[in-house]
Records
---
Amino acid sequence: LSSQLIVSLVYDRGTILASKRTPYNDLNADSLDEEALIERLSRQHKLICAAVRAGRIADLQQMTGKARAAKAEAAAEQKAELPVVEVRETLEESLAASVQPAAPIETQRVITVSTPEAPPIEVPDTAPPATNVELDDDFFDLPVFEDAVMIIDELQLLPEEAVEVMSELSGTERPRNDKLSVDILGETKFKGGDRLSLNILVCRGTERRIVKDAQIMVKVLGSAFRPVIFHAHSDANGLAKVHLQIPHFQAGRAAMLVKVIADGEELESRRLVTPG
């Protein structure tokens, strides 16, 4: 094969930021020296990791550019055979004494034995800004605040003179009408078998003006008995009292219908009757 290289690539979101290629042709003269190859591979991997941890991405990119330029120049001089361009790792010398051993980070180590490589991918001129956030150890000692309940020992009650009750409709004019209305005074629940006196008030309009001499009909309807009808008229105060008895029934449905007729206008009001 024409090229035997140890290739290390530094990625950022799918973009190759820098690469390091080291030939190992000299280790494969007669038979492959695996121990020497592993040592060379580990040395290159540690160099790349140390550069990344030290924030020397720009130096890696510069070293990659120099290697490509030297390789292109050598290829132009000797077309018959691609020479092995050895790039001196100046970065290795500067980091050897300063970088402390650290836990390995995840990188990609590739050993390739391939045909002449394709044109390299262009590396961006500017490296993406580093967003490293460092927190002091004291940060983790701070207390964690959770949902808390505040207990108030004493309640201060305001005097009645300081409290003013405002209606929700204060300052709002209510709509006016002149419609007929009917109210069942002291209304309770109705059930079968009840004997009672029904007090009915007939009014008109928003001011609830009383309506006298209005015709009132109370009809009790049910699916288990025949209808029962009662009649009455409102007096000078708009009141009418109807004495009635609701038939007994144990099943089915029943309702009480109150119908009022006054000045040619009719109004109906229904109430539910339960079995009894």
---
Amino acid sequence: MNDAPYPPGRTDDELARLDVTVLLRYGLTAGPGARRTALFGDGAAAAAVVLDRLGTEPRSVAFLADTVPTGGRSPIPPGRYSSGVIQHSSPDERRPANDGPKAAARNRTALVVAAREVFSAGGLDAPLSAIARRAGVGQGVLYRHFPDRGALVTAVLEENVRQIEQAAAVDGATLAGVLGVLTWHAVESAAFIGLMHADEAGGRSGIRAHASMLSERVERSLRGRLPDGHRLGAADDLMLAVAMVTGAVTGPTREERERRALAAWRLLGVEVGPVRPYDG
């Protein structure tokens, strides 16, 4: 195997935007002698992403899937190389992640669960590679289900927003009760706080548009339970108050974050019901 230099690090979004030809040239290096193919680091991941996105099973997909977890430094397995071409893998050799609709559904669920945990701990700009690792799948599988970060953020935060909408839709629901549900999600999830500050998403790929859409759904739910003459009834006051409260939700423990959230609502003169998830 030749001593090709290790490529410079690239972010997930940078890898996803590269041209297919560039990705393959970046990821595949032919070795002399035994005519093996070496894959290196981000290049291996990048090539796997592109091949996975093609939705096909080209000769090198199974090998890429086997090689990417090692950082791209494993040689081609014996018997898989003939006349300079990597051979088709048998169905039994393929990764379970590519084995039919049921596996695809399991992978998607695992990615959403992992993303919820990673986003909760690290916010909306946590590394996508960390999410794939926690879910136990390759980055190519992640990109198959979620083409960009914004799509994954939407899937993760959908449940938060849905609970607020459900709480607001109950007959006799009050603004205080819905704010209690919203506050619970803010206390529990750093990612939900990021949603409430969507205008700060800046240039991060896809996040701002997706987060703004979800934030608008939250506002509609709250405004539907806003009494006439309420102090937050002015055009921008409602979501400004929500942003102020979620901005105050800091602290090392859940109890401290909830205490600060309730103190912020109290300083704004807004009544809040029990801080709890919507339980139907």
---
Amino acid sequence: MKKLRKLEGVKDDNTIPEGSKEANRMKTHHISFEEYKKWIENLESAGLIN
């Protein structure tokens, strides 16, 4: 499995024009599958998801 390199910074995804009623800022994070799996397991062990 190919590991993703960690990104130095994360830019906002500007899909909705600034000043719009629905102007929500979102960030895109790139993580490896193993990091994602560990993150989900931590959420489950904390009782935050089933």
